[in-house]
Amino acid sequence: MILIFANHGFHYEIERLFRSFFPPLKIEMSFDKADAKGEYCLTERIERVNGWTLSAELKTERECYFASEDIPAGESEKEQERVLSVLLFKVLREYTGKSMPWGILTGVRPVKLLANMQDSYAEGKLMVSARKLALARKINRVQRPLIASMPERSYSLYISVPFCPTRCSYCSFVSHSVDKAAGRMDEYVDRLVDELKYTADMAEKLRLRLDTIYVGGGTPTTLSAEQLKKVFAALDRFDRSHVREFTVEAGRPDTITREKLEVIKAAGADRISVNPQTMRDSVLKAIGRQHTSQQTEDAYDLAREVGFRSINMDLIAGLPEDDLEGFRYSLQRVCALAPDNITVHSLSLKRAAALFGEAEIGSNSDVAAMIDYTHKLLSEEGYAPYYLYRQKNTVDNQENTGYALTGTESLYNMYIMEEIQTILAVGAGASTKLVDTSTGRIERICNHKYPYEYLDRFNEIIEKKQAVFGFFS
Questions:
Q1: What is the CATH number of domain 2-98?
Q2: Which of 122, 174, 209, 318 has its CA 20 to 30 A from that of 48?
Q3: Strands 51-59 and 40-48
């Protein structure tokens, strides 16, 4: 199908909204109304004497759907964009028979956006469902005291380890399999240590206070125990006297060993993730994971035995060869282990992932039911949602939500999603986010994405980091 933008500049939001109804559908885009032939979706703005007429039309071989509204001349561009998005939403809802639960919202952080908005506006003007609005409100209530506890001039440290044992079929992250990257992993660790030392010196000069540490990936435990020790030793350059949380994504159960867990624990980490994604072996095989659900349970038990106070586990709703019954089984089995945090992601069909373009995946209407079941069961088990974010091309327009037992919420996860604290990030693909808490101003400094770029152009990364001094001066 062709999506046409006629006489308006609202291309980004209109395209995002259109794709939310058809995640895997290949579409073409045009700015010429003359292309409105065959099967198309036309969004148009026509100038009138006293304002504008906005309209959305979707035409197929058999049917035509149309909606329009007149806008007074004084209305802002932002309001015009909202109205045109609502018109398109209504047309697509009628055509597909689906009502996207987040309405016309297409951004990553709906909780942040809705925080100071009236319910009547969110539901009536943005088409957000009452269920999703209630979820956002509940998360906001949990976050308030956590946000209030954030120290002044504080920051979090993110450490990127972009390697995995194998690449999962749904994954679009910039991560490399160990087989491909093995020849340069020692070199990567050395450069990571160099960047950590530079970052520690920078934070000290700026008198910033380290609040949380997060080691993510990829799968950090693809590194050997000795490589992990080398990375953690570099943390001694930081003033860690005020650190409230130290997380390591242990991640894939087939990379977790007692030796690695003991190294992580000795470094001071108090929170780890053991991420099964599903507890059905047939689904694990379908997504390219080379471990079993029993290995997940064994890795979890080992982490408890080593003494971690807080453990998170991730599941994904909508994986290939999974269904509602299978997802319920996975969630129940994870709950039986009693982790402190459970994060449930909705499958997102990213272009860089092997699954992108498989329409049978995108049509999985069980995902909404999986997400609803998650909220019901975890509420009954004593977990409360505490952070939420959305991704492009998510099946059934759902979201990713982190649930926690009271008092075990991850500060880092909340900070990064609500964009309220500076994050100094090191490693390939890492993005430093500078936040001015007094004005809300945000600036980003992105490292090169791929490990070989990070290694070959490391000096450029250090030069770019000089901008941190300018931000805080």
A1: 3.30.160
A2: 122
A3: antiparallel
